[in-house]
Structures are given as C-alpha cells and as structure tokens.
Amino acid sequence: MSTNQSVKAAWDHLAGLPRPTLAELFAGDADRLSKLSTRFELGEGLGGIRFDWSKMHLDDAHIAGFEALAAAQDFDGRRAQLFGGEKINNTEGRAAEHTAQRGIGKDSSVEEAQALHQRTASLVAAIHEGALGEVKHLIHIGIGGSALGPALAIDALTRDGCVVEVHVVANIDGCALEAAFAKADPATTMIAVASKTFTTIETMTNAKSALNWLKENGVDDPYGRVVALTAAPEKAVEWGVDETRILPFPESVGGRYSLWSSIGFPVALALGFEEFAEFLSGAAVIDEHFANTSGADNLPLRAAFADQLYTHLRGCQTRACFAYDERLALLPDYLQQLEMESNGKSVTFDGAPLDGPSAPITWGGVGTDAQHAVFQLLHQGTITVPVDFIASIAPGDQLDPAHHRILLMNCFAQGAALMAGKDSADKSRSYPGNRPSATILVDDLSPASLGALIAFHEHRTFANAVLLGINPFDQFGVELGKQIANAIDQGEAVFDASTTALLAEAGLA
Ligand code: F6P
C-alpha cells in the first residue's frame, strides 16, 4: 500500500469504530483510569504533572487505530527529522530547532544555543549588577510569538516579586505603549525590541516611539538603553543597537516556538537566569519523553489522538482550554497562536489539498470566571466542545486555603458534570452529559513545570500535524493582510467598493 492508501485506510477504520458513551467506557473497562490517567515525573524535587484523558472517548480500539495512523504518517521518521535538525519546515526550507534551545537536538545546534544562552546570561548579570545604570523596568516590545510567550511566563512566574518589572507591549495601537509608559520611569527603564525578522511594522513603530519617549524624558542616549532579541542581528545593528546588546537566535527557531531562545530574555531579567534555565530544563524533560516514547504512552501523541478523535471523527470545530489558575490566565492566548498558526492549514506536507479538517479553533479562559460566562454552552449547547482543564494542586496565593479549595473543587466538578450530565423531565433543566474533558494537574506551578506544560503543548501540536500530514512550521496565511496594509500605506492598491469607502471615511485615502 502507498502512504496515501495506508493513511486513508487508517482513517476509514477509525471512522467505522463503535462510539460508546463515556459512562459505557468506564463501565466496560475496570482499568480505564489507570490506562488513561498518567502521572509524569519532572525529576528529583520538581514534582510532576497528572494527565487524565479518561473522560475523553479514547478507548483501546481508538488508540490502536490512531497508532496505525501515526505509523502510516511515519510519525517516528518525522519526529527523528525534528530532533535531528532536518529541514522539516519544507515550504521554507528550514529546520525547526526550538528543542535545541533546551539542550535536545542536533549537537552543533545545541552547542550554538548554549553559547547564545551564555550571552543572554552575561547581559542579564551585567544589568542586575548595575553595569547599565539602575534598571527597574523593561518595556518588552514584540508581537505574536515575540510577545505571547514572554507575557505568559512573566505573568505566571513573577507574582511573588521580580528583580526587574517587565511590561509587554504588542499592539500597534498607541494605547498599549502609553499604558506601559504610565507604569515605568524613563530614568530606570530599558527597552527590549523582540522581533525574529526585525521588520515587523507594529514592533518597529512601537520601538521608535519608545526611543522618543526616553529622549523626551531626559535620557541622553536612548539607543544605549535598548536590547535587541532577533534572528536578524544585522538589521538590529543597522537600526542603531550596539552589538553588545544584541541577543541573536537562530533562523531555525520559529516565532511561536521562540520563548526558549533570547526571546526569553525578559523572563531571565525578571527572575534571574537560573530560573530561566530551570524553565528550559522542565521543557527538556518533556522533550526526552516525546523523543523516546512509543505509541500512546507518548503523552503529547496521546493528546493528539484525542484531538483528532474530536476534530476529525466527530466534527468538533473548536477545543477549549480553561486554566483554573489565575497565573495561567494567558495560557489560552498562547495556545491559540501555537495551535492555530501552526496547524490552521489546508494543504498537506506535499502541497495537496487536505482531506478533512485541520486545526480546531482554540479558545478558552480562566476558571472559575468562565463558568459564569461561557460554560452554559459547554453543558447544554448543541455542539460538543472538548475541554482541557489545567490546574495546580499547590495554591499560588497566600490567603485562606478556602480560596484554592473552592477553585479546585469547581474545576473537578465541571469535568464530572460534563461527563455525567443529569436528566430532568423539564428539558431546559436537563444536561445531556457524555461531554469530553481532559485534566492536566501540576503539583505546583514553577519555572520547570511551566516549561514542561508549554513543551507538552508544542509537541502535541507537532503530533497533530504529523497525524494530518501537514507542515506546522510555516504561516503564509498571515502574509496577505500584511501586504494589503502595506499597499494601503503606499497608496498603491485599488480596492473593492466597501474597503475604498471605509478608507475614505477614516481619512486614509
Ligand atoms: O505575522 C505572524 C508572525 O510572523 C508570527 O509568526 C510571529 O511570531 C510574529 O509575526 C512576529 O514576528 P517577528 O518576531 O518577526 O516580529
């Protein structure tokens, strides 16, 4: 059989499998919990993470079917290409070497990453020691992958205090930068310009305004306060940044996978480089697991089996992630870019049209807030939304333990309610149940466990791409809008009647 035939046969087999309810699955297999709920140890003194997929419709038959699909899509081969630094991003002719930043990958790439991390560590130490004067604030300017990761990690890990306060600014809307200015003192503020390409219009415009702000507020040498985080160091030099304050990262690290590179500088500056190194180590533990574990024992691959079950076999167009932890409030935003920019594609690796859906829409929020806002649809709406609940056993707060107890009770209650449902003679008070959820429970939120959580999702995204036969590492879908915005700026383009009228009304034409 050709690859295409074996892939089709695997999907056909999966589509034909029986569809027991969750209640039937639990009743029919006494070992269900131990098969589908797994504790993953992060290492000595680092605690662990429980991954529980038992409330999802995975069963032995589906797992075997998905393992056959993974084999047909040459999962082992693709994974070896990823870790071997091969040009797995075929449309851009590049490797995807984010794991090398965490110490796992091609030797030469790991060595290069370590040397670059050393550069970051030295600059962080110099700033902490006062070599650049007093630094209390960092305005980190970047967008997409150059902002979402730093924003998540800073928000998650600095609540107990930090060495330097970081304000992440992404939007070109000047209100975003003004909000950061309002919190910072120009005399003690540094600017990080984070851009893989060092050309992104939002970032470069914000960076220029931040320099003006420093100058207008008495800083004689504003460029002396700038750090550039980029894969295009020559552009940063051209723009005016001194080479000693340029922290490069390799082209082979994709934007939405770049938090582990020098794009993580604000995390290291806020917390100290040692904590940043722990964050990298936590991710590396998942890398080792993902690289060396076969079949459904491989946790990111098992998560992808569940994802494909709902997206491909059950037609679910969205998946939701609810963090029952205020510190992870930005995780759904981070996952949106990771999953939708990676796998929101319509063609396969070979450029053929994709037969079936690609990535679902990733959305979510924070619990318990979301329970009082959007959970109505999850429980009683007409569509099924597979949900991930993410929580920490140890609290992030110092208040009355009642807070954390109620938080976790609610988290677990939601998963139980979605699955069990409840019948009532009054149909508007009836809950259909049999609705899927997974629970990811960390012992404690720390740099290592956050690193592991993010790396788990990266590999889950990659595993989904392999099952679908698509390239998760390009993002051509974002280009057309950028080109048209540029054309408007240049006054070059001719538009449809609606756009022309809007431009005229806003005074842009
Ligand atoms: O427009 C999409 C994108 O290219 C993302 O993939 C990327 O993370 C973001 O823009 C920012 O790009 P850069 O880091 O080059 O400024």
UniProtKB/TrEMBL annotation:
Pfam families: PGI. It catalyses: alpha-D-glucose 6-phosphate = beta-D-fructose 6-phosphate. The keyword NAD does not apply. The keyword Cytoplasm applies. GO terms for biological process: gluconeogenesis; glucose 6-phosphate metabolic process; glycolytic process. The gene is pgi. The active site is at 341 (proton donor), 372, 482. This is Glucose-6-phosphate isomerase. One of its GO terms (molecular function) is glucose-6-phosphate isomerase activity. It comes from Novosphingobium sediminicola. Keywords: Cytoplasm, Gluconeogenesis, Glycolysis, Isomerase. Catalyzes the reversible isomerization of glucose-6-phosphate to fructose-6-phosphate. Pathway: Carbohydrate biosynthesis; gluconeogenesis; Carbohydrate degradation; glycolysis; D-glyceraldehyde 3-phosphate and glycerone phosphate from D-glucose: step 2/4.
